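Hmm, how's this folded?
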Amino acid sequence: MYILTVKCWGLSESEEPIYSTMFSSLKHPVRRKILRMLSEKTTSFSQMLEELGVSSPNLTYHLESLGELLCKTDGGDYKLSTFGEAAVNTMRIVEDAPAVQSKHHNRFMSLSLKSILGILIIGLVFLASFSVIEFNELNQLSNAHNRLQSEYNQLQSFTASTDKAISFLRDVVELDLTNYDATLLSNTADNPSGLDGVVEQILRYSLVSSESKIEVVLRFRNNILSNYQMLLLDGLPIYEKPQPFTVLDSAKWLLYKLSSYEDAPYLSEMNSTLFQFGEADSIEMTQGNLKFNLSISGTNAEMEWFYTENGVDFTQKGLKIVFENQALKELDDGYFLFKIENTQVKVSSEKAVQIARDAVKGFTWKSSSGQTVSGYTVLDEPVSAVFQPAPREDPLALVPCWYVTLYLDNVYPTSVTRLAALVWADTGKIGQIKPISG
């Protein structure tokens, strides 16, 4: 009650212009007509021009003079604000009051206006109090919303940035996500060095239900799935649909769904190889530029497709799928990412070993303490030369090369026991030499 009494007898600086506008408007016939018109319905500018019969600049002047007594609808029409409604109510009180013809007329009018002003201020204070209450309620609702949003964010995994991950789990792996509480454990994005600006995003999920517990990791490169791994911690995966009876049929069904998921023609070509034989323990075949290896043991299977040309196998440009207990355990796809620079092999493995031996003569390296290591002896045996295409100048273009390993006569600082040399098979030049520990 104390606060109400104070506000009845004093106006803040922000309220004074409003009341000035209100009472000056009540004295002006055109503005009274505008207020009365808007008290009945919302009205457009053109409708007011027609009904009032004034010029457009004149109407604009009056509308601007009415100030905060008016506001606009979303459609651009004019309507009364809260203060405008109060002004109209005041105008009606004045108009409806009987004329007092006495010598004290002016004094009565002054008292009447003061009474009306007091009533109006009390009403506005009431509205302000109501607004404070409403604000507090809205603030409480906002806090509740923020709390629920925080809890939702903690549990929810189905966000815009993870749509492809969820789509893969639901549409390709066919996990019944409605039976799992999904938690996004991590979501990282990076531009790995050596991948020529490729954007790599890695998402890790925990999927928990009363029947099973799973962790999955999905890696996307340029928004295309390049790796999937599943770790079954408890129970068995819960699927949305019945799964194929054999692991080979599971692979066929997986590639069919994957080709729709990624819309990549090479996936359909890979899938066609699975229909060229029945159940088998192992298969190795070449179809055009596609080499396929299959190994099946019960409900476990490992399948690999990769690009081959002129007898050169580019395993990095390939797709690998691993099933364990007929569940998809791993998928790795580099076929879409890498390209072939050339297929020339002018250097044999024997020649590559000799080139590597010559190249490491005088080679030194720094130990962890900064010591320069030299004076080692390279053994004649053992030695290995593995053919493994690798990027050269273009990080995503593969070139035939030999990876030669030369063993040393002793263990040297930083536990170095051998040297590895990369020899380009098309030119015979050394690409890199590095010490290997262990």
The chain has three domains: 2-131, 160-340, 349-437. Confidence is low (pLDDT under 50) at residues 1-15, 97-106, 153-160.
